[in-house]
Amino acid sequence: MTKFRIILVSFILVQLILPVRVVFADTSPKPTMEFEFKQGLAGGPVTLTSGILYECDQAHCSDAALLQELGPQRFTCDPEGCRALAYGFAPYHRLEIEFSDGVMRRSNIFETAGFNSKYTVTIRPDDLLVEAQFSASALPPTLLILSACLGALLGMGLITGLIIYFIRRSRKK
Fold first, then answer.
1. 3-state SS string for 67-122
2. pTM over 0.70
3. Are residues 100 and 170 in the same domain?
């Protein structure tokens, strides 16, 4: 019985000595949006002063609602561009940005382009034109990993098949 007690006390002491680690429950990657602004005004460049991102479930955006600020989920702008991070985005969006010239410009309705979406926003005299930029990072990370694994599997199968073919061919001669 004393051997069991020694092991039990040793186990408890090891647990007390080891550092306590902080555990975060929400560590998965979250979808993002990045907006790059392009000047399309004749009067000279303007800078961003504030912005709002509306989310919509319907294509005509009649149910527009602000992207809520919950934990890391938020929409932020600086003088050069805007970014959004969310637990999940609605299918459709609209931007409303105020600029240094005092004009509040509203964008066209645009769709979520992917997991890590990038957009080019052209600043026009009366409104904004949002266009999606395609990039591989717009795809969900799991899809990229799955594609890489499938490609590796096909490549290994092709190499194995060629090796077997050449071994059998050399034995026939």
1. CCCECCEEEEECCCEEEEECCCCCCEEEEEEEECCCCEEEECCEECCCCEEEEEEE
2. no
3. no
